[in-house]
Amino acid sequence: MEKPCEIQYNNGRDEMKESRVKAWRFKHKERIMEITSLTNAKVKQWAKYKEKKYREKERRFLIEGEHLIEEAVRANLVECIIVEREKPHPFQQFPVYEVTPEILRKLESSVSGTWIMAVCHMPQYSEADYGQRVIVLDDVQDPGNVGTIIRTALSFGYDAVLLSAHSCDIYNEKVIRSTQGALFHIPVIRGDVHAMLMELKQRGSRILATSLHNASALREVAVPEAFALVFGNEGKGVSEEVLRLADTHVFIEMHTFESLNVAVAAGICMYAFKK
Predict the structure, then answer these.
(1) What is the rounded CA–CA span in Å between residue 247 and residue 201?
(2) For 139-251, where are the E strands, in sequence order?
(3) How far apart are CA 24 and CA 134, in angstroms?
(4) Which of 5, 10, 31, 104 has a 20 to 30 A CA-CA distance from 173?
(5) Which domain, by its residues, includes 86?
(6) What's the CATH number where 73 sits?
(7) Domain-located, residue 8
(8) Are both 268 and 208 inside the same structural domain?
(9) How high does pLDDT run on average in the chain?
């Protein structure tokens, strides 16, 4: 006797949900555009943003999932929403493209099965955004490491993250996911690492580079008012060119292993030098 009642209840709940969806779509119909073809020009354009060369050319990138979109909205980076048809969402202030699951599968970079994405524009930064407490990545190439370092830098109150030209692309989907949206709230600037460090030195910043040789223990280094902490490539460490520019070489004292994963080492150093 209870089973038919349960089915009837669920059917009623589904009907109420469908009614709310229809009401929501009607209310925001002027902002909703529907795309069903995989060969649509918009879909083709968005799909190009999965490749670095097109992201850089158009200065656009894709993000997946509600949390990242919320963070991008806070940073005023969102241009439009791409969402599975008839799925309500809280981003109706933007142009909305309702698409099929097949289109979403074509656009997503992972196998997350996301139902919502956004197209964002890249922020513009300059030397004026460097600040006084800076993290510098010298050819750090693993997306997970780069993303984790950016997230940690924001968490500990650093002003910017500077990356060498050969470091990982910060708009790589794995980097974005690793940052959990931190990428949108701290200046992250790619350029010539030598030129960026020289600019910082001219401003009076001290350059502190991690190294295993001729270095001072982290706990013995006084925290300067303005400084840049430099972390190097996963395999080679900080380059000789950059080490020659550094005012101080720093190492983390350990009991056994000689070195740590770069993201772990960066987290320890950033905590030690945080405000």
Answers:
(1) 9
(2) 160-164, 188-191, 206-210, 216-217, 227-232, 248-251
(3) 45
(4) 31
(5) 26-121
(6) 3.30.1330.30
(7) no
(8) yes
(9) 90
